Amino acid sequence: MNGLTGQSSSGRLVPRDGEDNMSMFFDFGSPAQDLRAFKPSTTTQNQDPAPRGGIRVSLACIPCRSRHVKCGAEMPNCSRCQQDDKPCFYAKSRRGMRDRNAPRKKPSQGGKVSPVLGNQFIHGPNAMGYPVTNSSSESYNGPSSDTSGSPSSSSSKPMSSKRLIDLYYNFFYKAHPFVLPRYYFFTRLESDPESLKHLQAVMQYIGSLYAPDISSIEHRDLALNQLDQPNMPPNGFTVQALLLTAIALHCNDEMDRGREILDRATYLALELRMNSREFANMERDPVLAESWRRTYWGLYVSDSTFSAIRRAPSFILNTISADVELPCEECDYLSGVIPRPRTISEYEARDFEDETPIFSSGAYLIDLSRIVGCLLSLEQLPIKQREHAAANADAMLVNWKLHLPREKQGVIDRNEQVDEILFRAHILLQICLIFIHRPLSRLFHSPIEKISRCAPPPSSLDLADRDPRNLWLHTQKTLQAAETAIELLTLPCSILNHSPTAACGITAATLASLSACCYVLTGPEWYHTRDRIRLGLGGLKKFGEVWATSRQAESDTKKIARSVFALPRPGSGSGTPEMGDVFGKMNFADPMEQVVDSSGSVDSLVGMDMGWQDLREVDYLALLEGMGQQGLNGISI
């Protein structure tokens, strides 16, 4: 079995227990647009300027292609999909579903790839002896005096365009480095702007989010309008544009639309066979080939992240065969000197080498995203199987951490800069640990947590008659993971340089800490954890300066925090016993029935004679509406 790709040694996909390979494709609902939105265009072909007609698209439905099985190609549904009772859909192409009534397009001169472009990249700045300026570390210091800030102003448009691209590279690129590095992007933009038209619009939209003097609404609408056009070229740059748009919308509180666009990017990537190493290897320019590899793995990581937040049982690309080579280190990519790509097989054999080889930061993030695919199904298991499955999942995560080389055990690289890819990996590790252990711990999920879109609670488990030692173990592991995740925010760099997808992880860690203050901690530990909660809220506030999802997560978490800190904490007086003393008195079948129903009533605690005040004395509705915000056990939110 291929650990990273979910395929057997024969290359065929392996179905999960009780389901087939394609069932996971439709867990998220049908995308708003599928590959029918992509009509092949004669105006672009970025893989090879030779007149070979581009990538061949044979007549077969998308589900059959994804499973690498023979398709009968019947219309409107193929026989195999009918037999399997699965949805059937095709990619529209001239070689497949040609519309014979449509007028034949004339070749467009503007869409040809400049033959000089390949030479410019192959004989790039390093080969010619020119210094490469790594300007991705530059920071934006506020609006420039010579820029009006209006994207519709013709006089300021060139300056505004470059400035927005610079903001994209300064703030967003390091955490999502799959488009061309800055120097190579501007080089291609000068020689072949048509090929980057759609991608550039999305990058400008993301850059505008970081510009305090420019409204991002117009840039957002422009980018989305271009992506909705029917003549989008089916190539790697379109996949990159869709992927960036999906991430931006997801982090701007448009999670459903972000998921739909990510599905479009995934289907197009599979249609182009970006999951095969040949797609990148037939590219003449090594920097662009590396960009294609990074694009596929960027899809893979984003797919796992989106699915984890939605608590889906799997993610699409985890069921697809792939032999794409792993990305190189960021410094090599930025310099344009691309080393021999490392393979998945080499990575999986690393633990048996006498000297553990060092792979790129991206390789370790990809591996951790693969582990996420194994964890997502835990929620579907009954409680009797959950404990054993959690132990196996915990072992996978600990194994990942133990086998990290010394250079990758922290998030600071050899240049004494924060490695944003390693930051994503390490915070993902802690969130996975919380995902595994909190449902089996004493850190119960309050019903109020259901208001959180970023970190919704799982289905409740019946913890009656569970071994107290196991509950203690899961509680300690959850607390440790939550503290480690939040402390990553104290790194000496701007929080806005981190991936905005980390905000949901920070939310999950903060909610776990809130539960600890409510149910477990006393004395100095209670105050220590409350400070961590404030740190988590501060991180969400900083992310919220740019990203709407973070603003909403901060608001939701504050509402939950107000309800938690409105309650007397364990050990605060009134004869409240320690948690260890009341452990045997708790009804784990329903540990906290603070149920806020549709009428706004609040049920009392059931089976918890802990000396706490009756919950009916707490005006929950006032708290949830943002009232009574001060004087709640010393916290002012």
Automatic annotation (TrEMBL):
Biological process annotations from GO: DNA-templated transcription
Start-end of Low complexity biased regions: 135-159
Stretches for region Disordered: 1-21, 93-118, 132-159
Ranges annotated as biased composition (Polar residues): 1-11
Ranges of residues in domain Zn(2)-C6 fungal-type: 60-90
GO MF annotations in UniProt: DNA binding; DNA-binding transcription factor activity, RNA polymerase II-specific; zinc ion binding
Pfam families the record matches: Fungal_trans, Zn_clus
Gene3D superfamilies named in the record: Zn(2)-C6 fungal-type DNA-binding domain (4.10.240.10)
InterPro entries: XnlR_reg_dom, Zn2-C6_fun-type_DNA-bd_sf, Zn2Cys6_DnaBD
Keyword line: Metal-binding, Nucleus
Name the record gives this protein: Zn(2)-C6 fungal-type domain-containing protein
Taxon lineage: Eukaryota, Fungi, Dikarya, Ascomycota, Pezizomycotina
